[in-house]
Amino acid sequence: MSDLPVSAAEPIFVGAQIYRASSYGSKHPLAIPRVPSVTELGRALGWLPPSRYRSSPRAKPAALRPFHTAEYIAALQAAEHSQQVSDTVRARHGLGTLSNPIHPHMFRRPATSVGGVLFGAAQIANGGVAYVPGGGTHHGMPDRANGFCYLNDPVLAIKALQRQGLNRIAYVDIDAHHCDGVEAAFHGEETVRLISVHEEKRWPFTGALADTAGGSAFNLPVPRNLNDTEFELILERFLLPAVDHFRPDAVVLQCGADALLEDPLARLALSNTSHWKTVAALRELSRRFLVLGGGGYNPWSVARCWTGVWATLCGIEIPDELPGAARRILENLTWNRRAGFLPPTHWYTSLRDDPRHGEIRDDVRDRVQHLRNRLSAEAAAPTLSA
Fold first, then answer.
1. Sequence-ordered list of residues with C-beta below 8 angstroms from that of 333, at least 6 positions apart, any chain
2. Distance between CA atoms of residues 83 and 236, nearest Å
3. Which tens digits make up the pLDDT trace of 232-269?
4. DSSP 347
5. 139 is catalytic
6. Cα(40)–Cα(147) distance, rounded to whole angstroms?
7. Which one from 93, 103, 139, 198 is the annotated catalytic residue?
8. How do residues 147-191 score in pLDDT, each as one tens digit?
9. How is residue 176 annotated by DSSP?
């Protein structure tokens, strides 16, 4: 495997075997296979040849310290080793909870996710596209696990890009849950623009429309049942202008699949074509594009969406009907949290969801306009036009 950066025409896919061998536990929402399903589908469809695939390294503790405290890293490693934590450690660092349980790979798995995004960031230093579906753990805090996230790889990716001398980083997050850990890390930083579209009144209950994180964040909380028509308005009228106006040296996209209709941990109603349109449009706005996974707790929704993300990055036309090898991968998926659940037939036969169009509600229009007004005000400010 070459360590040389690839050209912008050759996206790379960063995966790892650890995602096949590790689980948060059979009753946890992340008990489902995600990265392995995407990897297998990409290979079955002929979209993921060996020349495009990279094995993720595991980040060492020193690589975590630009954001995470040494005390927390040590506690996480010790918990993996002993498979237990004291009440003090649980209260201090959020380990051994229902959301962030003790499990055999609780340090190695997230450290591999961090290693993957750091590898991807290095590969696009001179231009290019890297896809790390195992990344996107945007809730992790400096000294504690939070919201299924033991470490915060988006923060560490952005910091790595900054160390490469890239002065302006745009971070876009379309996960159903607000990126509270990323916002906390870059509060008030003028060289990082955070853009989050997330469900309102949904955990972690942060990211209000008026929350600017000291000027660095544009937060768009959206109501339940957000549809494709509303998302297209958001994409065209707010999200893309917010990135383009910033003139980023690199774009990082957290592409959580929990905003899709079938996800059990959110109440939005998007089809996966909204994600694919976002990926295609953002790729045009920067020479450097790092795409991460994130949330997503329905095994079929995640596999189909994220495989389509890879096809979109590669410029591959997504077929209406899947060949037999790809269908068998989807047919063999199981969902422990939904015993006896029978997926609809098209989850086996196609990657593409039917469009989920609908009316554009006034509150969605009003919130988009509020953020457009803020963009206009910033564009007119002397400090931004200099």
1. 32, 33, 37, 299, 300, 303
2. 48
3. 999 999 999 999 999 999 999 999 999 999 999 999 99
4. H
5. yes
6. 27
7. 139
8. 999 999 999 999 999 999 999 999 999 999 999 999 999 999 999
9. S
Question: What residues are paired with 19 via a beta bridge?
Answer: none
Number of neighbouring beta carbons within 10 Å of residue 152: 31
Distance, CA of 26 to CA of 335 (rounded, Å): 10
Q: What phi, psi does 110 have (nearest 5°)? A: -65, -30
Alpha-carbon distance 216 to 192, whole Å?
6
pLDDT above 80: residue 384: no
In sequence order, which residues have a C-beta less than 8 Å from that of residue 310 and are 6 or more positions away?
11, 13, 38, 42, 47, 48, 131, 133
For residue 147, list its beta bridge partners.
none
- β-bridge pairing 217-222 and 53-55: unpaired
Tokens 């068998």 belong to residue: 328
Query: SS3 for 360?
Result: coil
**58, 62, 68, 70 alpha-carbon torsion, rounded to 10°:** 120
CA distance 56 to 41: 19
**Range 279-282, long-range pairs (CB < 8 A, 24+ positions):** 279/253, 279/255, 279/309, 279/312, 279/313, 280/312, 281/235, 281/240, 282/172, 282/240, 282/243, 282/251, 282/253
In angstroms, the CA 201 to CA 61 distance is: 35
Q: How remote is the C-alpha of 321 from its chain's centroid?
A: 27
> CA 35, 80, 181: angle at the middle one, nearest 5?
60
Strands 53-55 and 288-292: unpaired
Whether residue 242 contacts residue 218, with contact meaning beta carbons closer than 8 Å, is answered with yes
Element of type H or E holding 220? strand 217-222
Contact predicate 154/136, CB 8 Å: yes
Cis previous bond, 204, omega within 30: yes
CA 348 to chain centre: 24
